[in-house]
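dumping this here so i dont lose it
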């Protein structure tokens, strides 16, 4: 369903007003680290409209992109978590919110002793295009004819390709706090594709948003008040997770899910959800004789690439999957079994990741250790040797 123009305008108007005067109805209660809040001016805190705290899952030194940065609160929180060596970029389309965030950025930097946060104007579903550059172009050369429009379209294509605001693989972490639901349904595939594009390999997205437990009927989706209030545009909870997978991300994990709904409208529950998703499963699969053993507690599980892992079974995996499993969110659930003699990548044959689960024979991973076991298993022990070993 196309989002009506008046609904889009309602979002802009309401958040512009929310930059001038605090509006508590635009957010649901969320707790933050008081020590981090102390460095942020009160005017910023009073005009924050979020539903979670993705910044608590960041690490020192990371480069972070905040989608829909609003008053700048999440960016100023993230700037403290990533520290002096990290960097935070906020993007937003609302001029009033950008002005508010930029106004207070120097004071936050003074209180912290370093400046690592910047703000840009852009649509979160189009992170290649700097909208402030576009504002300048339109002021200098207004569009008043079809020829002008064709010229502008050419400039936009060139700008996105040659000078993207956020380049491919440019950030470690994408965060967002209660903003994705404001994007038109027809633009959401592009939105999630942009999240995937700007993340580096091994990077992750940490998104807090309002989700619904049922499909939202059309008449609610056309309500500008409900849309700007983060209700009518909420994505159904299971489809929210599926959208990350469709964009090529993996390992989606719910970090926080509100027990109670924030709002209930016509029997539909709307609650806060925080999800992390990872990038890095692209590329060929080569067999270097790696294996993993799933610890449980489930009898078997299936990952986002269709690999089925059975509890306690030494399952063969490709080199790429082995590297993915060696990191979060999988590592705590698996025992990693590297090959005794690593097959050089240049000599490794393709691994059939699409096939049914393949069992790695123990002798493929223990190699010479197996020969040593067989050589000593039948020998008698000298007096006193019974004290050696573990049993």
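and the seq i came up w/
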């Amino acid at each position: 369903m196309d989002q009506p123009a008046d609904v889009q305008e309602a979002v802009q108007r309401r958040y512009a007003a929310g930059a001038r005067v605090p509006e508590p109805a635009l957010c649901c209660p969320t707790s933050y680290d008081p020590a981090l809040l102390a460095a942020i001016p009160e005017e910023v805190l009073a005009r924050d409209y979020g539903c979670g705290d993705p910044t608590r899952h960041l690490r020192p030194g990371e480069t972070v992109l905040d989608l829909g940065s609003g008053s700048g609160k999440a960016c100023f929180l993230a700037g403290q978590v990533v520290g002096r060596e990290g960097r935070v970029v906020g993007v937003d389309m609302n001029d009033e919110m950008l002005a508010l965030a930029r106004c207070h950025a120097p004071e936050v930097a003074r209180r912290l002793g370093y400046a690592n946060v910047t703000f840009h104007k852009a649509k979160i579903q189009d992170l290649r295009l700097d909208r402030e550059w576009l504002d300048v172009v339109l002021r200098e050369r207004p569009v008043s004819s079809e020829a002008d429009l064709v010229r502008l379209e050419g400039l936009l294509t060139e700008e996105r390709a040659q000078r993207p605001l956020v380049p491919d693989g440019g950030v470690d972490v994408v965060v967002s706090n209660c903003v994705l639901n404001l994007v038109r349904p027809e633009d959401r595939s592009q939105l999630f594709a942009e999240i995937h594009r700007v993340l580096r390999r091994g990077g992750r997205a940490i998104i807090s948003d309002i989700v619904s437990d049922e499909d939202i009927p059309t008449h609610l989706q056309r309500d500008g008040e409900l849309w700007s209030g983060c209700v009518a545009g909420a994505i159904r909870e299971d489809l929210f997770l599926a959208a990350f997978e469709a964009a090529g991300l993996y390992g989606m994990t719910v970090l926080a899910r509100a027990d109670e709904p924030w709002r209930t409208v016509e029997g539909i529950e709307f609650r806060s959800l925080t999800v992390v998703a990872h990038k890095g499963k692209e590329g060929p699969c080569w067999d270097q004789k790696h294996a993993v053993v799933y610890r449980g507690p489930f009898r078997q599980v299936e990952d986002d690439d269709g690999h089925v892992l059975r509890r306690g079974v030494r399952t063969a995996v490709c080199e790429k999957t082995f590297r993915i499993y060696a990191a979060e969110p999988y590592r705590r659930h698996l025992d990693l079994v590297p090959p005794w003699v690593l097959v050089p990548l240049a000599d490794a044959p393709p691994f059939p990741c699409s096939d049914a689960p393949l069992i790695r024979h123990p002798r493929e991973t223990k190699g010479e250790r197996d020969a040593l076991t067989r050589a000593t298993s039948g020998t008698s022990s000298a007096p006193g040797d019974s004290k050696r070993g573990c049993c």
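The longest strand covers residues 199-212.
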